[in-house]
Design brief:
Blueprint lengths: L1 H17 L1 H16 L1 H17 L3 H51 L2 H4 L2 H15 L2 H26 L4 H47 L4 H7 L2 H53 L5 H42 L20 E9 L9 E9 L2 E7 L5 H8 L7 E6 L2 E2 L5 H5 L2 E4 L10 H6 L8 H14 L2 H6 L21 H14 L4 E5 L7 H14 L4 E5 L11 E6 L2 E6 L1 H7 L1
Parallel strand pairs: 3-8, 3-9, 6-7, 7-8
Antiparallel strand pairs: 1-2, 1-4, 4-5, 9-10
Length: 578
């Protein structure tokens, strides 16, 4: 229980930092709503007793006017606070916290994201948001505040009716709270497996609607097969949920019987007091309304304390994920001076991916020097892409060292070290932003002329300048048609050139191109390679390709096979070796 309360406090801090006005709005509305039931308890009693005792019509009208006025003022103020501060923030709550979870994913190492357990932890954290448990905790807290105020108000009325009435309500509330706790524990027991099955179903749904899968789905016709897999997984989840909701129904029926018995007990007890002339008709109405309010508020208060434990278990999943830390060292103290001539080296580097025993790279030793062009060739799975991911510290080697100018790469601040790389990845992405934003990202804000000129030069070197100039809004044209009807859809080759322009724009000292020409024709590839030779004069340029023709113009060629550098040298030297 103590751990759950600590988790609740942990999440409350997140919510408070998310919106202070939400917390204050909820608190104010809760106090008002806690006092409002007093109107239904006190004023009807005055009206009924006044009618029976023959009070003047003006007195009855006064009671009615007072009731209507106070109801209007209370509900108006509560509605104002709810709409202005509560509903607005509740509407944006899930967006904010889902973004926080994805931001945490962006902070983790790629190696961590290769771990299925990390994805399960992320899904459990998201489950808390989708279920609204975080925001419900605040609702429950202030409902409990409302309940506490109402209990105090109702108790002041009920105490004069004798302790038996309070005993009936208290016993019923304890029974209801125990039933709810039993149900919540049943849900928690199934949660991990249910979340896992939901992840699988969401994956199938995402594939079905993903435009990048549309061609394969239509050519190979696997939509029906995918639906079959979806239905099989859905059947497993349905079976689990049916058992869960069957249990829920049983508990609900028992609760209904308990509530019915409680109402009967209250009616009978008050009727007995009325028959004995110990209470008036007005007091009968007052006590019954007070008992109903007391009972409901006591349930709310009991639910809150029960949920402290239940919510704490859900929040534990959120906390478990959000407190994950990247494993890579980020806070190195070394720095690269502008005048330094760069050398990037690997010494006895070995590496394998998480969950696999196979070595992808095995005892790699090599040095890349500034001002030279290197071409990495080899079959699929030889380790070419893995090698560049180690060079730019997307992964860390299992053994050995990656060094920059004879200093271990992890001795440099990670952000500063990565800023020296511009990379065109084999699985590059474009985004539904403008052309300029796709190339320069945040630097394009304000559209400074110097930034636009750098974009134009990058587009020219990548061979995309004429295409962009022909677009209706030039570099302000949006890519894709997800959000804008006038967005443009580039061809595969044009998208590849866009990725090249992005890498060239950032003017890094180390330029790495992983299969940058797979969608280009031979003439475009040749022109691009000659352009890179000019660009590479002051850079380390590493070019990964399956096309041996690209090796002709390289200073050095590395042939990778089975995770090792099988051969290296200039194109001529390798030809002489046969």
């Amino acid at each position: 229980m103590l751990k759950s309360i600590k988790n609740d406090i942990y999440f409350l801090k997140y919510l408070y930092s998310y919106s202070k006005s939400y917390m204050l709005g909820e608190a104010s509305a809760a106090v008002i709503e806690g006092l409002m039931p007093l109107l239904d308890i006190m004023i009807p009693k005055l009206m009924i007793d006044g009618l029976i005792e023959g009070d003047s019509f003006q007195t009855i009208v006064f009671y009615i006017a007072l009731y209507v006025l106070l109801q209007f003022l209370g509900q108006s103020l509560s509605s104002f606070l709810t709409e202005k501060y509560v509903n607005l923030n509740e509407h944006l709550y899930s967006l904010h916290f889902l973004l926080m979870i994805n931001r945490k994913k962006a902070d983790l190492d790629l190696g961590q994201l290769d771990d299925p357990d990390i994805h399960q932890k992320a899904a459990l954290a998201e489950d808390l948001i989708y279920k609204g448990i975080g925001i419900d905790m605040i609702d429950n807290f202030f409902t409990a505040v409302t309940g506490a105020v109402s209990i105090a108000a109702a108790s002041a009325v009920l105490i004069s009716a004798g302790p038996f009435l309070l005993l009936i309500i208290f016993v019923s509330a304890c029974f209801s709270a125990a039933s709810d706790l039993n149900m919540e524990n049943c849900e928690l027991a199934q949660r991990d497996e249910n979340v896992y099955l939901t992840r699988v179903l969401n994956y199938y749904i995402r594939i079905m609607g993903d435009q990048s899968c549309a061609k394969e789905m239509r050519i190979y016709g696997f939509a029906d097969w995918l639906m079959k897999k979806y239905r099989e997984t859905l059947a497993s989840l349905k079976k689990r949920l049916k058992n869960l909701y069957r249990k829920s129904l049983q508990i609900r029926l028992i609760r209904i019987l308990s509530e019915t018995a409680k109402s009967c007990g209250i009616y009978l007890y008050l009727a007995w007091l009325a028959c004995l002339r110990k209470i008036t008709v007005g007091e009968f109405s007052q006590y019954f309304n007070a008992a109903a309010q007391f009972s409901e508020s006591l349930l709310d208060l009991g639910t809150f304390f029960m949920n402290l434990n239940v919510n704490g278990n859900y929040i534990d999943s959120f906390r478990d994920f959000m407190e994950l830390e990247p494993m890579m060292k980020k806070d190195g103290t070394e720095s690269v001076a502008e005048k330094d001539r760069l050398m990037l080296s690997l010494s006895h580097v070995r590496f394998h991916y998480r969950g696999s025993e196979k070595l992808i790279l095995d005892d790699i030793n090599y040095t890349f020097e500034q001002g030279k062009v290197y071409v990495l060739v080899g079959e699929n799975g030889a380790g070419k892409t893995t090698l560049i991911q180690l060079l730019c510290r997307l992964y860390e080697p299992d053994e050995g060292t990656v060094c920059l100018n004879h200093v271990a790469a992890d001795q440099f601040p990670l952000e500063e070290y990565r800023s020296m790389f511009s990379i065109v990845f084999q699985d590059f992405h474009y985004f539904a932003f403008t052309v300029g934003e796709n190339i320069a990202f945040g630097e394009y804000e304000g559209k400074k002329e110097t930034v636009q000129e750098r974009i134009r030069q990058a587009l020219k070197k990548a061979g995309l300048k004429k295409k962009v100039e022909s677009l209706p809004k030039g570099m302000d044209t949006y890519l894709d048609k997800i959000f804008y009807e006038d967005g443009t859809v580039l061809s595969g080759g044009e998208n590849q050139k866009l990725a090249l322009a992005r890498a060239l724009f950032h003017e890094a000292k180390i330029l790495i191109l992983d299969e940058p020409c797979s969608a280009l024709d031979p003439l475009a590839e040749d022109a691009l390679f000659h352009a890179f030779q000019e660009t590479a004069k002051d850079k380390i340029t590493i070019y990964i390709s399956h096309r041996l023709s690209s090796a002709v113009l390289a200073d050095h060629v590395l042939f990778l096979k089975n995770g090792k550098i099988w051969e290296s040298g200039s194109h001529e030297e390798l030809l002489q070796k046969g």
